[in-house]
Amino acid sequence: MASKAILGLIFGLLVGRAVYGAGEPHQEFVCRSPTEERAIRLYSRFDAHAQHGCRVEYEKGGRTRILWSSQSSSTYCVSKVTHLVTVLSQDNFKCKPHTVEAVEPD
């Protein structure tokens, strides 16, 4: 099950180029166990100057923390998310990928 989720994440990164900012789009995994729900969010930045930064947010117990970030490599964050989804899947969580599109400001 985790391999399908990971493939969904990688595909989303290739077709959905995100830019940091208000209403920013991102890749998200919602991971559920019989008693808990957690979320992993991957934000990737692609700009005209070829900067490919990223950050990974992890929501657990109603608290969100930034676990990892990089100024220059989105691949770094993809590998961290892949590992975390795999670990949670082995710990009785079912993780499903989801792409969150940009929200246009009013």
Give the class from helix and strand content and strand pairing. Answer: alpha+beta
Average pLDDT, to the nearest integer?
A: 79
**Shape, per Cα inertia axes:** elongated
End-to-end CA span: 39 Å
Number of strands: 5
Which secondary structure elements does this structure contain, and how are they paired or packed?
Blueprint: H1 2-15, E1 26-32, E2 37-44, E3 54-60, E4 63-70, H2 74-90, E5 94-100
Antiparallel strand pairs: 1-2, 1-5, 2-3, 3-4
Structure description:
The structure is a single chain. With 106 residues, the protein is of the alpha+beta class. It has one domain (2-100). The protein is 29% helix and 35% strand. It is built from 2 helices and 5 strands; from the N terminus they run αββββαβ. It has helices at residues 2-15, 74-90; strands at 26-32, 37-44, 54-60, 63-70, 94-100. The chain has a 5-stranded antiparallel β-sheet, with helices on one face. α1 packs antiparallel against α2 (74-90). The longest helix has 17 residues, at 74-90. The radius of gyration is 13 Å and the shape is elongated. 25% of the residues are buried. The model is unreliable at 13-22 (pLDDT under 50).
